[in-house]
């Protein structure tokens, strides 16, 4: 090989080495840039995650505060409802006692007018028997023609057919709850401030005394030819 050819080979080798060096440097630069981008992206990801965690924490705190506030508000509403129900219950009970009070105040006058003597009168009696309870608004022992009678009065604000049926059911069970009166005949009555006409007619047919509101007192509301039914123990 001639000197010229050797110099040509050297130049080619030199160019090849130079190209390899440039390629190596470019690869290193690309690797460096990739690492930088990865690092930057990783930092951005960590920052984004940090912001997300902070936002979730903030949201969680806000939700907890909101639920706590709603719970406190709900407790206030529940308390208000409870107080309202107590007030309504008090008003309802108060209204329910109106006919009872009027009937009790008028009882002696009405039944004395029917020729009865009043031995005693008790309001608001309750008895329990076999797990059940019976409540009687007015219970009285009266005497007529030397015969004792027990009178049981139930007071209603508005008299309905159901009320009459309930009273008849109580009459069937009366001597079970009050066995001390089994030797005394029973007479029943209903006192009311207002009524359904069919309930009033039905009650009278069943032989029940009717005490109805008139002005500020109770008066007898049965027809002139009314005869009360007398219940006795065992019938």
Summarize the structure.
This protein is an alpha/beta fold and 235 residues long. It is 58% helix and 25% strand.
Write the layout of secondary structure elements.
Layout: H1 3-112, E1 117-129, E2 132-144, E3 147-159, H2 161-177, E4 186-195, H3 197-205, E5 209-214, E6 217-220
Helix pairs in contact: 2-3
Explained architecture:
This protein has 235 residues and is α/β, with parallel strands linked by helices. The chain is 58% helix and 25% strand. It is built from three helices and six strands. It has a six-stranded mixed beta sheet with strand order 1-2-3-4-5-6, sandwiched between helices. Helix 2 packs parallel to helix 3. It is rod-shaped and about 165 Å long.
Notable characteristics:
235 residues, alpha/beta, rod-shaped
Radius of gyration from the alpha-carbon trace, in angstroms: 49 Å
Helical run tally:
3
User: Which sheet architecture does the biggest sheet show?
Assistant: 6 strands, mixed
Order of helices and strands: HEEEHEHEE
Subunit organisation of the chains: single chain
Shape: rod-shaped
Low-pLDDT windows of residues: 84-96
Helix content: 55-70%
Strand order of the largest sheet: 1-2-3-4-5-6
Instruction: Estimate the mean pLDDT confidence.
Output: 83
The counted number of beta strands is 6
Span of the ends, CA to CA: 149 Å
